[in-house]
């Protein structure tokens, strides 16, 4: 999420022709490179310290892990908030650590979205104000394509990652068990890396044309074998045909 925010800041600076990009010095580079590291460090701290493995959480999920995955708790590694911890007397106690941990996570995600929306709107306004000359028209088209590709690439993790995870944690916060439906999150997260490059390939014209030309001009295996055979016959030898 931090990297997405940095993308929108950088895209706005490029579209606006900001002097901040005329020369990269140490502090400018550090800002772009260290922000994702800081976000990742905060998330690591939350996962390890606030919502990491705890005896109470382990006892709560022990039977579920055994029934669902046929695994013993001792053979697994897990992280996750346990908002309502059951006490020996049957009452429930709110776990402050889980509340603080997930609030920190939502704060990280929210700050990234606010950055994306703010600089995305400024970038769109900046592109719309470009003077319609020949050079600026090409620049406007390029910036527009890159902008919408970036917007689409931002929506993909929102739909496939953050929305399902948010729903799962929301049901947990309401003390509602959704059972095996929580496994759907693993499938959407696994699909994200495969789908993420598609907006750039399909939206940016030069990439789209290259893909179209490749698909239309790529020789079929049978045709390629016939061409290799004919070439070998012309040279008097067809003993070695490149593998298909």
Automatic annotation (TrEMBL):
Locate the coiled-coil region(s) and give their ranges. Answer: none
Q: State whether keyword DNA damage applies.
A: no
Q: Which UniProt keywords apply?
A: Membrane, Transmembrane, Transmembrane helix
One GO cellular component this record assigns the protein to is: plasma membrane
Mind listing the GO molecular function terms for this protein? G protein-coupled olfactory receptor activity
Q: Which residues cross the membrane?
A: 29-48, 99-121, 146-172, 184-207
A Pfam family recorded for this sequence: 7TM_GPCR_Str
Q: Know the name of this protein?
A: Seven TM Receptor
Q: Tell me, which GO biological process terms does this entry list? A: olfactory behavior
């Amino acid at each position: 999420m931090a990297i997405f925010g940095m993308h929108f800041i950088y895209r706005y600076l490029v579209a606006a022709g900001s002097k901040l990009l005329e020369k990269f010095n140490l502090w400018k580079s550090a800002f772009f490179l260290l922000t994702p590291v800081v976000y990742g460090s905060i998330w690591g701290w939350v996962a390890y310290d606030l919502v990491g493995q705890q005896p109470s959480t382990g006892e709560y999920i022990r039977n579920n892990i055994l029934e669902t995955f046929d695994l013993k708790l001792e053979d697994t590694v897990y992280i996750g908030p346990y908002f309502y911890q059951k006490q020996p007397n049957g009452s429930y106690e709110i776990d402050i650590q889980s509340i603080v941990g997930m609030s920190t996570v939502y704060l990280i995600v929210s700050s990234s979205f606010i950055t994306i929306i703010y600089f995305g709107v400024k970038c769109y306004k900046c592109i719309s104000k470009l003077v319609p000359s020949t050079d600026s028209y090409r620049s406007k088209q390029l910036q527009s394509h890159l902008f919408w590709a970036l917007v689409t690439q931002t929506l993909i993790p929102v739909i496939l990652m953050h929305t399902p995870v948010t729903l799962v944690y929301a049901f947990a916060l309401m003390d509602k068990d959704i059972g095996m439906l929580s496994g759907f999150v693993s499938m959407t997260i696994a699909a994200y890396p495969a789908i993420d490059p598609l907006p750039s390939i399909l939206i940016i014209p030069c990439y789209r044309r290259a893909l179209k030309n490749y698909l239309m001009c790529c020789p079929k295996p049978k045709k390629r074998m016939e061409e290799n055979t004919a070439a070998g016959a012309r040279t008097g030898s067809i003993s070695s045909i490149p593998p298909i």
